[in-house]
Design goal:
two-stranded antiparallel ribbon
Length: 239
């Protein structure tokens, strides 16, 4: 059976929705390692943190994602350089990152331990490289919304309503899934599932830039929503 998983950080662990041939389950995993322990057979795992870290410049995928989401490009943070990710505090991380020509945004710093966790996991588990990939929820909603950013913030009632409506257009059970996970976990986030042929990538090139470890620095998001099916679960507690 095909298994697709979407995960995002939810305050005390990784919240994940597991989709298996039309059925779904949700769970909370204390670490990426525990997620992999139970779901190493997954066909694809999408995660809402950077996968593949730069050495000395902004990633092309982040630049292009910000451009697509204008005038709401601030919803995408530039991935820090790998050296900054392993610094012990924000001041040192900012100093290290500024040597690459840009700073770490303050709102991005709480996510840095999660970036480091995923980076270490992939380094120690090379077999996960082709299955654990990066996505960004707002880029997924951009695709579902006719290639237009959702204007309302996801922190507002209207922003939540609009995002749920987009999901329900693709999956009638989306609202019920959202409500069940909200009541149980309180911190649901956006995840996505599509066949490999129906995912678009940033940057839009056959061979994306790779980091010093050989990891491709890319973001995946849905292709034309009229051609294939996307299943997502929406909500947020961060950003």
């Amino acid at each position: 059976m095909a298994t697709h998983i979407g995960v995002c950080w939810a305050s005390t662990g990784w919240f994940g929705v597991v989709l298996r041939n039309g059925d779904w389950t949700a769970d909370h995993f204390p670490s990426v390692w525990s997620l992999w322990k139970y779901h190493s057979d997954a066909d694809r795992i999408l995660v809402d943190v950077p996968v593949g870290l730069p050495m000395d410049a902004r990633r092309a995928c982040d630049v292009e994602a910000k451009r697509k989401l204008r005038p709401h490009g601030r919803r995408i943070c530039y991935a820090p350089v790998r050296e900054a990710v392993y610094e012990g505090n924000l001041d040192d991380a900012k100093e290290t990152n500024e040597a690459a020509g840009y700073s770490i945004q303050n709102q991005a710093w709480p996510r840095v331990p999660r970036v480091r966790e995923v980076d270490e996991f992939i380094d120690e588990n090379p077999g996960a490289r082709d299955r654990l990939r990066e996505t960004r929820p707002e880029l997924c909603f951009y695709a579902l919304n006719g290639h237009n950013p959702v204007a309302d913030s996801k922190r507002t009632d209207e922003g939540i309503r609009r995002r749920l409506a987009l999901l329900a257009d693709e999956l009638p059970d989306a609202t019920a899934i959202y409500e069940a996970c909200r009541d149980r976990y309180m911190t649901p986030r956006v995840t996505a599932r599509r066949s490999a042929d129906d995912l678009s990538e940033l940057p839009e090139r056959a061979d994306p830039p790779r980091d010093e470890r050989g990891l491709p620095m890319r973001i995946v998001y849905p292709s034309d929503v009229n051609q294939t099916r996307l299943t997502t679960l929406a909500g947020s507690s961060e950003e």
